DNA sequence: ATGTAC
């Protein structure tokens, strides 16, 4: 197959403007997508686009050419403001300075309108973990995080929680057989899911390339702090949304995200953002995409796909375990905690980034995990304006992974697990319960943000 | 977080 050769001269001949970047963008797009087509056919395509570029705006492949011909994106070095957008920090005494400074930097972005830091806040890449940032008409890929749509999912069963103790081996086996951890492990038989019908997999070249990976990774959990666990749900609020009598139940709790799909989407669009909005040193990872541009709109679609895919993965995990358990859940609670949403903030529609923060609009349910030996909380948001209607996404790290490995021993963990009656499958030292802050302290720092509906106490935990 | 690196 002859390889396509396109030169600037060819495009000038058919009328492409020499001013601006139309020619270089067009050559780039054509070489990437129509490498095997005949040159005259490709030039004909380019002519058609040039004649009526408006018609091709939003097209996944040639939309970027059309954009350059109609409303070119201006790349310019961005400066930070000298003042910060308004913000509130919850549980300030428990948060390291570095995380606060990361928020302060983000609040000086020209697109920043408001921010907040949750009481589990700690240092991250770009926006701190526990950071919330409201921006105008723009989305920051690293404000969402690398694991787009990282989320929690809890299923509650009408099975006595005490059942676990008599059948530990059975539950351990279920997790070993029906959950997949690590970079490589996937299920032998993939369940089909409607997510794979989504048009984004056809329309966006970057996403199209990730289809196969997404397909094979469905229902897998990955690594890092991701887990699947059996535990005891205790419903304490008698006016709970599930109409469940106060008491204890068996629960399955999972924590994971969008696997390779989201990671590669994040990587691709962060690179584009860094090219389009170059920022000074300490802020460079906060580069954004204008939502009125081709790339910005494409990221938004891809991000939402990754979020739905993460949800599909959790549902697949719970479906497999429910089947093994031979039971249907009475109720489920789930929420993203790495994502961006368009929300009204002080009367204005803004893009609210939550990077390790639980959505907590009034009446909205969510899950805030503790650690493998501390309870997590089923919560109901209060819609607090100062947190931009958010809460923490967990206890938060107290020790960095490196520090945890240096100071915690395997026997420390063993003792802690035994004291709490927890069986652990996998799990490195960096995920030790002692590496996390005290969840009760964190919860006491966010009583204005969420109400407690119940708790989930882990009993059988599987990690990478 | 991620087949850990343009």
From TrEMBL:
Entry GO MF terms: DNA ligase activity; GTP binding; manganese ion binding; RNA ligase (GTP) activity
Span of the secretion signal? none
Reactions this protein catalyses = a 3'-end 3'-phospho-ribonucleotide-RNA + a 5'-end dephospho-ribonucleoside-RNA + GTP = a ribonucleotidyl-ribonucleotide-RNA + GMP + diphosphate
The organism sits in which domain of life? Bacteria
Q: Which cofactor does it need?
A: Mn(2+)
Give me the comment on cofactor binding: Binds 2 manganese ions per subunit.
Q: Which of this chain's residues are annotated to bind Mn(2+) 2?
A: 255, 337
Q: Where are the transmembrane segments?
A: none
Q: Where does GMP bind?
A: 225-229, 337-338, 369-372, 393-396
Q: Does the keyword ATP-binding apply?
A: no
Q: Where is the active site?
A: 393 (gmp-histidine intermediate)
Q: Tell me, which GO biological process terms does this entry list? A: DNA repair; RNA processing; RNA repair
Know the name of this protein? 3'-phosphate/5'-hydroxy nucleic acid ligase
Query: Source taxonomy lineage?
Result: Bacteria, Pseudomonadati, Bacteroidota, Flavobacteriia, Flavobacteriales
């Amino acid at each position: 197959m002859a390889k396509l050769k396109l030169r600037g001269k060819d495009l000038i001949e058919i009328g492409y403007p020499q001013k601006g970047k139309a020619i270089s963008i067009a050559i780039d797009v054509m070489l990437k997508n129509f490498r095997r087509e005949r040159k005259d056919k490709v030039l004909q395509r380019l002519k058609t686009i040039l004649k009526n570029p408006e018609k091709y705006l939003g097209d996944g492949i040639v939309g970027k050419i059309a954009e350059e011909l109609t409303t070119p994106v201006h790349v310019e070095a961005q400066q930070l403001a000298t003042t910060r957008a308004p913000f509130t920090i919850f549980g300030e005494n428990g948060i390291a300075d570095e995380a606060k400074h990361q928020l302060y930097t983000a609040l000086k972005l020209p697109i920043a309108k408001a921010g907040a830091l949750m009481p589990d806040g700690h240092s991250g890449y770009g926006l701190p973990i526990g950071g919330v940032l409201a921006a105008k008409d723009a989305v920051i890929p690293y404000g969402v995080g690398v694991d787009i749509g990282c989320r929690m999912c809890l299923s509650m069963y009408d099975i006595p929680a005490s059942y676990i103790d008599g059948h530990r081996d059975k539950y351990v086996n279920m997790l070993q057989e029906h959950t997949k951890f690590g970079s490589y492990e996937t299920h032998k038989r993939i369940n089909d899911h409607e997510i794979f019908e989504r048009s984004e997999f056809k329309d966006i070249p970057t996403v199209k390339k990730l289809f196969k990976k997404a397909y094979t990774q469905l229902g897998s959990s990955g690594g890092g702090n991701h887990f699947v666990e059996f535990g005891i749900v205790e419903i304490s609020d008698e006016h709970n949304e599930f109409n469940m009598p106060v008491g204890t139940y068996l629960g399955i709790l999972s924590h994971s995200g969008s696997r390779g799909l989201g990671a590669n989407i994040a990587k691709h669009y962060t690179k584009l953002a860094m090219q389009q909005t170059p920022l000074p040193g300490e802020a460079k990872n906060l580069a954004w995409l204008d939502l009125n541009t081709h790339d910005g709109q494409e990221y938004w679609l891809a991000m939402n796909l990754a979020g739905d895919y993460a949800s599909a993965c959790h549902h697949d995990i719970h479906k497999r375990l429910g089947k093994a358990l031979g039971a249907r859940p009475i109720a489920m609670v789930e929420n993203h905690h790495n994502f961006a949403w368009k929300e009204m903030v002080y009367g204005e529609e803004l893009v609210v980034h939550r990077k390790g923060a639980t959505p907590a609009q009034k009446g909205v349910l969510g899950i805030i995990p503790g650690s493998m030996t501390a309870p997590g909380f089923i919560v109901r948001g209060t819609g607090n304006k100062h947190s931009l209607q958010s809460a923490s996404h967990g206890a938060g790290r107290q020790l960095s992974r490196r520090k945890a490995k240096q100071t915690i021993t395997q026997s420390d963990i063993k003792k802690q697990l035994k004291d709490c009656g927890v069986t652990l499958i996998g799990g490195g030292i960096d995920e030790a319960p002692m590496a996390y802050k005290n969840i009760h302290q964190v919860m006491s720092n966010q009583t204005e943000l969420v109400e407690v509906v119940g708790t989930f106490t882990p009993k059988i935990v599987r990690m990478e």
